[in-house]
Amino acid sequence: MKAGVKSMEMEQLFKKSERKAYIVNGKHLLIHGSSMDSYYDTLLSNIKISAVVTDPPYGINLLSSKNTLGRSKTVYKPVHGDTNTELFKMFYEKRIVSMGINNYAIFGGNYFAPILPSAKGWIAWDKKVNAGMSFSRTELIYTSFHKKTDIIEYRYAGAAVEREEREYGYKRFHPTQKPIGLLRRVIQLLPDTEDYILDGFGGSASLMCAAEYEGTKSIIFEVDEEYINQGISLYLSLFPSHEIKEIVF
Ligand SMILES: C[S@@+](CC[C@H](N)C(=O)[O-])C[C@H]1O[C@@H](n2cnc3c(N)ncnc32)[C@H](O)[C@@H]1O
């Protein structure tokens, strides 16, 4: 089964893996499960995936002891798998190298640099914020792109967060939630494709939302059911008329 897998066919494929998932608008597969689970090997090898765009746990115990970020008082849940970079290492080997995926963009690239081969096409996401803030002014994205090191300017702090939330009509709920507008810019850098983009660490399902805007199909994994449910709500707030079909086995 290759590109253009229909909703029904997707359901058939999924049946084999006996897990819970959602078929979103007949184009995206949102899986409540671990992207490392061997259960999904057959499923993933039967669907044509042309790119990975993902934001793995950075292995840095990101949140403070009070589960807050920087100077913000918002309390989040600790990020699952954030104690070391082993998870990413396994993901890179199993879901990128072994699957022969040649197009990828990996957020948090600086944390994974010791594991990754040297590359030309790093991208710095410039949040366009002033020095002295309590969070990073840039984030580094490791990519497969055979281009010069580049910058994506996408303002994202203070009022700009509110602008993105207003534009897309949501409230941020995940500690490392990436702006949908930024993810759209990253998807635009990938070669045009009829195939799927894989995000092994979906969080808020922001990549699925961005993929829908960009007319691209996606497969998203997330282990935390609360984020799956919040991700579905986020998607429906953007695309209220789209069908979401739950598959429980
Ligand atoms: C850095 S966050 C991603 C945030 C996401 N980019 C967003 O915009 O919301 C990493 C996510 O991976 C999830 N996760 C951790 N281990 C996982 C695994 N083995 N399979 C799938 N998801 C996993 C965590 O629960 C967390 O939500």
TrEMBL record:
Residue ranges of domain DNA methylase N-4/N-6 in the record: 160-230
SUPFAM superfamilies, A to Z: S-adenosyl-L-methionine-dependent methyltransferases
UniProt cross-references to Pfam families, sorted A to Z: N6_N4_Mtase (PF01555)
UniProt entry keywords in alphabetical sequence: Methyltransferase, Restriction system, S-adenosyl-L-methionine, Transferase
Domain of life of the native organism: Bacteria
InterPro entries on file: DNA_methylase_N4/N6, DNA_methylase_N6_adenine_CS, N4/N6-MTase_EcoPI_Mod-like, SAM-dependent_MTases_sf
Record-stated family: Belongs to the N(4)/N(6)-methyltransferase family.
Name of protein: DNA methylase N-4/N-6 domain-containing protein
